[in-house]
Amino acid sequence: MIELIDNYGVEKKYIDIMNDFIDFSVKKLKLKNVLFNVIIINDDDIHEINKKYRGIDRATDVISFALEDEKEYNATDIRVLGDIYISYDMALKQAKDYGHSIIRELCFLQIHGLLHLLGYDHMNKEDEIKMFSLQKELLEEYGIKKES
User: Fold this and answer.
1) 45, 63, 110, 133: which could form a disulfide with 41 (CB 3.0–4.6 Å)?
2) 147, part of any domain
């Protein structure tokens, strides 16, 4: 079960596409019995989360909290992956800065966050290439190109 929680007031058409894209991605990644949330918030809220949990005193675009990383995590038949927080304010800014649509930016941040929940990272070049290639592949296969 995937729940998209809109605490910002995003246009319904964007929420619908995000829901469809994340369902598509879960199927393509062959994930079964997973539970995670995608929560859309504003810059102030993500700034507070970033400061409290990461010690970074600024807003960011996406933060993932992977529950499977927790040492006390108890496995069940359902994989409880965690939460993905997306700043809609930052998504709007980045879409403008990068010259593509807001939906492309939202879907990119969403899949980026999901891959983090699944253990992907970009701390070194090899891992970055692997993670970013998979993001690009999923976005393009769904029909979201960099310029769209």
Assistant:
1) 45
2) no
User: Average pLDDT over the chain, rounded to whole?
Assistant: 93
Range of the domain at 57: 2-142
Quote the CA–CA distance of 88 and 96 in Å, as a whole number: 12
Neighbours of 43 (CB within 10 A): 18
Q: What is the pLDDT of residue 70?
A: 56
Q: What pLDDT was estimated at residue 79?
A: 87
Number of structural domains the chain divides into: 1
Distance CA 137, CA 16 (A): 21
Region 44-51 average pLDDT = 98
Q: Among 26, 77, 98, which Cα is nearest to 3's?
A: 26
Higher pLDDT, 80 or 48: 48
Q: How high is the pLDDT of residue 60? A: 98
DSSP codes of every residue in 83-122: EEEEEHHHHHHHHHHHTS-HHHHHHHHHHHHHHHHTT---
Residue 2 pairs in a beta bridge with: 36
CATH for 129: 3.40.390.30
